[in-house]
Amino acid sequence: MIDRARPVADEDMPADARDPGGARSSRFVGGVLLLVLAGMWIAGWLSGTSAEDMLSLTAWGVMLGGIIALGGIGLTLCYGVLKFPNFAHGEFLTLGAYVTYGMVLVLPRSEPIWRFSFGWELVVGLPLAAAVTAVVAITIDRLLYRPLRRHHSPLVLLAMASLGMEFLLRGIVYLIWGSDFHFYYSGRANPALYLPFGLRLQADQIFVFALALVLVALLYWMLTRTRIGKAMRATADNPDLAQVRGIDTEQVVAWTWAIGAGLAAVGGVMYGLASQMRPDMGFVLLLPLFAAVIMGGIGSAWGALVGSIIIGVAMQLTSAFLNPAYGPAVAFVLMVLVLLMRPQGLFAQR
Amino acid sequence: MPLLQVDAVTAGYGDTEILRAVSLHVEADEVVAIIGPNGAGKSTLMKTIFGLLHPRQGTIAFDGHDITHQAPHRIVRLGMCYVPQVANVFTSLTVEENLEMGAFPMGKVDLSDSKDRVYAMFPKLRQRRRQLAGKMSGGERQMVAMGSALMMNPRLLLLDEPTAALSPKLVAEIFERIAGINDSGVGILMVEQNARQSLGMAHRGYVLANGENRHEGTGRDLLEDPNVGRLYLGG
Amino acid sequence: MDLLHFLKACFLLVPAFLLGCLLFSRWRWPARLSSALAFGCLLVFGVAAWWPGAMDYLASFSIVAIIYSILSLGLNAQWGYNGHLNFGVAGFFAVGAFTMALFVTSPPSGLMAAYAQQWFGLDAPYLVGVAAAGLMAGAVAWLIAQPILHLRADFLAIATLGIAEIIRLVFQNERWLANGPQPMSGIPQPLSCVFDDAGCAWLPDALRSALSVMQPRDYGYLYLVIVTFALALVYVVLEAMVRSPWGRALRAVRDEEESAAMSGKHVKSLRVQSFVLGAVVIGVAGALYAPYMVTIDYSHFKPLFATFLVWVMLMLGGSGNNKGAILGAFVIWAVWSGTGFVTDYLQVALQGVAPDVASRMSFLRWAFVGLLLALIVLYRPQGILPERKRVSRFLDGEPED
Fold first, then answer.
1. How close does chain A come to C169, measured CA to CA in Å?
2. Alpha carbon of B18: minimum distance to chain A alpha carbons (Å)
3. Is the pLDDT of residue C81 over 50?
4. Which of B88, B98, C77, C304 lies at a C-alpha separation of 20 to 30 Å from C394?
């Protein structure tokens, strides 16, 4: 096989040039996205919303992006290593949220921490929920996806199997907890903090965003500084070569599921905290999650964060002039836009 | 006892048979070259030895251990490393990370000595160690691939067409490096298209055609053999 | 056996006969027709004689199973024959159903206009509505194919899922379009004139008086005959297309895209054509669904029923095989209905013990079907009836089916 010529580094290319594969540069795509967001801002302002309210929406969008990012960085990790879209990933969020809910009901209720709406019982429930979800993810992998991998099944079959798992897990959640919506702390006041520029944000929302930043940074540190993290990147890059180099790829896969599902579980709790718990929350968030991951570039943690923030902001901004129910539609349109310009996503390495 | 002993191995993919009762051996410290026309099964032979493909018949022994049906990550721990022909580096990892992956089975140990050893063999890599392997030229990638395989200090190195698609100057450079690696005590088994040059530097060679052994001998004998020369060395 | 039961059995004979034709497809035509007729009569009159109460259930079961069969056939045209991973079947189904509803209803007037809105109502005849539904679904498919069809399989799956969700959201939120989220009601049913006092004007007198013994709630039998003919037509057309040079080119593109391109097959337009064709069939299924339900709203087109179940049906029956698509539809609909009986029983049984859990028993079916798809993918991904490598109807000595 002829060795391809070295790809030209992005920094050498003019901003609107196409790379050898025909895709536009990251900078161009980023510019288009910013233009689209600016357009949404203007549309919202023209439809009668005040600039202050638009600013609030933007801030809330960033916070929503944080929630989406928690699920997104787990999804991008799994997608990158396992190479198929896991349609059941949303259910890891749902499971995490509901297991924590169970903990909160069982443990003694404590006073809210600082200005947050949650107490210590939620914080204690988080790692447990993450662990339970991780175990579920690894079990499903052992029983279903690993045999398919061993048979060298085409990835479409794995995607289909994951669709089956989506309905299985959702059915189980419905069976155990019913179809009603729940709140972690119903009846508890959740007053907003008053910030400059007329912004009103709940302490919870800031916490979620900060948590998302911290977890992305931790994940990035793990992927670039630890042995197992580098092995994950190597397996995502070239699974056959990873085996040749003596990496136990099945162990890497297990770690990937554990981390991906654990992060998703935390994301689910945060979503339940910020809005409410609904048994179909995983499915509702599935489209924004995939949109964020694909926009950011599969396998890139920073890409998932940036993609999530863009999606979150877009979803909030468009609620100023569109029916908010169309949020997932907005996420979807943005995703298709990026796919048309740069299929590998914003931060892809190749 | 030879370091690597391959006895009457028959292997293939699915229903087809590519290798038919192929045998060879490699002594410690030797350079052995396998040449032959395209489609002769040379790459398949390498993959079978390294455990990426299971032989239907025959045995493979390395340093006295039977590795006929062993998995690659166990064979690596026994002291044999493999450099595939294509896709032989992790393109989204840096040079240094590629080397670290080469030593993955050693666990959490300090790799500075191993890295120094490899950088000593390939000084250019030390300069570029924080560059992405995917952005390097073909020759540099080949060096990364070989260096990565050498991190575990193997006793036998399997090379699958190390000079494929390289310019003549680089080909000479790579062969020089291979000789250097061999001097440091590593046995080499390589499959090569550059038949003349590889036989020139090999202690012994095998000619494989149609999945079977055709000729065998020292490097010089094969070079001077008119049968071999006419058919496989391009005149 | 009284006249009513006899009439019902005659109606059931139509699908039973066609089923026989499918079963005996390897025989030559004379033998085939007569055996199919014998098979059908035996089946149907046997049930009428020994278990007449089951006929009503069989009729309604078969109607839904046939509609799902058409959905599976449409998906097969996309996935089985050309490899498109369409996770948005529900979207085209909805487009077909609502287009049908909009065409065949009249605009709400008088008191109703205060409560119901729709974009238009043409009061069109049944067949016009069906054609419009198919065309509309095909047009939507063509439009979305332009930007997304060239994407790799997993992105296409996500994209089609997204589009189906958007379509559902539109029908849910746009009041002016189809009264969303309220249902659109009053969709007229073809042949319902049978139940008028005077009967259908265009039927001969003898038939009219015979049919007058049927009640409005027996309408299902009439509709069963209609959908059966629709299924037969769709099946015959699709089978003919699969055996044609076009069908062969499709499979060449699916299996070896580069060689197909090098042989001069216009890959991109072939892929779009198969996607659009499948969408048209799915839209037609929607057009058949709407009059049967009389009332439709967005919740009928949620992914569970309208996408996921169809995939399970096709994967079980055999993707790449039209007969398999029909088989899968009937089997899975039977499984789904059967689990319905089980969960109903469980719900009653647990009512006294754990009323909370009892009310959620219906979700057991979701979990079960999800598990079923996973098992099919794991153990028999090619389905019950694997794809038949028929090259051309001229090439082998077997009679065509």
1. 7
2. 20
3. yes
4. C77
